[in-house]
């Protein structure tokens, strides 16, 4: 038996909603997909599995935001798989993957937020940057970064375990626009690292005994825009260089897989 492929974390933004279409900031507001969004995600599911961009036999877990739009997307992506395959994939609803809590900015457009902050006397010396400045009466970037760091630690811990066991492991993460771009930034170790000293222990944000809780010693948060794009319904792929869980990386080829004989270039410690 050959070596299992390098584990991957496949991030999926939910399909189109009325507010993703209009550009309104959608955090806790629990919107369903539009009719277009439903068809969009059905087509995406058919495509990624039919073309083997993702092998359903290698999906070990799906982690999803608790919001309706994310969980609806999970069901639509998996819809055409045989029941036997769907049953073997563990789906974990995780509160840590919910969208940025926008506070006073919920439902607003960017230019409306800029005007609101201006009326509050903010941003006189530099323009608003959500990745640095966070949201009034919502989450700071430190709060957002902490909970996404927790989610990443759990996924990478599972990947480490599966790799040691020789198990192929694609873990899919279904969430939101800001959450997944931020998630990708932290995966690549962007931003700043802070100690968790003084942080109160966090109770698990999910209900699945097969997912070990990982206590963080430190976490990361962003201080600027990571300059990633992920449209509604979009898919990105995160993985590891040199088959090493301690070297998280962006898979620039996305869901396209190199033939095994070509992948060997990533097996050494050379860049």
Automatic annotation (TrEMBL):
Gene Ontology terms: biological process: ribose phosphate biosynthetic process
Q: Identify which residues the record assigns to the active site.
A: 14, 99
Record-annotated residues binding substrate? 26-27, 69, 99-102
Coiled-coil regions listed in the entry? none
One Gene Ontology molecular-function label: sedoheptulose-bisphosphatase activity
**UniProt-recorded name of the protein:** LANO_0G05732g1_1
Which lineage do the record's taxonomy fields give for this organism? Answer: Eukaryota, Fungi, Dikarya, Ascomycota, Saccharomycotina
């Amino acid at each position: 038996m050959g070596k299992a492929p390098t584990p991957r974390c496949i991030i999926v933004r939910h399909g189109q909603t009325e507010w993703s279409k209009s550009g309104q900031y959608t955090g806790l507001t629990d919107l369903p997909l539009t009719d277009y969004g439903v068809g969009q995600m059905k087509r995406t599911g058919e495509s990624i599995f039919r073309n083997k961009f993702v092998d359903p036999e290698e999906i070990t877990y799906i982690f999803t935001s608790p919001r309706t739009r994310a969980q609806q997307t999970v069901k639509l992506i998996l819809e055409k798989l045989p029941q036997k395959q769907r049953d073997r994939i563990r789906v974990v609803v995780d509160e840590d993957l919910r969208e940025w809590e926008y506070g006073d900015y919920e439902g607003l457009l960017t230019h409306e937020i800029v005007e609101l902050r201006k009326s509050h006397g903010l941003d006189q010396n530099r323009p608003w940057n959500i990745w640095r400045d966070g949201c009034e009466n919502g989450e700071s970037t430190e709060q957002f970064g902490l909970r996404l760091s927790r989610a990443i630690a759990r996924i990478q811990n599972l990947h480490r375990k599966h790799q040691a066991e020789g198990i192929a492991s694609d873990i899919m993460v279904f969430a939101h626009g800001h959450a997944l771009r931020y998630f990708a930034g932290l995966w690549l170790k962007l931003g700043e690292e802070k100690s968790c000293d003084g942080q109160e222990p966090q109770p698990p944000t999910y209900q699945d005994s097969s997912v070990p809780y990982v206590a963080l010693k430190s976490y990361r948060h962003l201080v600027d825009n990571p300059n990633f794009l992920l449209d509604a319904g979009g898919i990105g792929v995160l993985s590891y260089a040199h088959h090493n869980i301690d070297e998280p990386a962006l898979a620039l080829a996305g869901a396209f897989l190199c033939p095994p004989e070509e992948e060997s270039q990533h097996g050494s410690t050379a860049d």
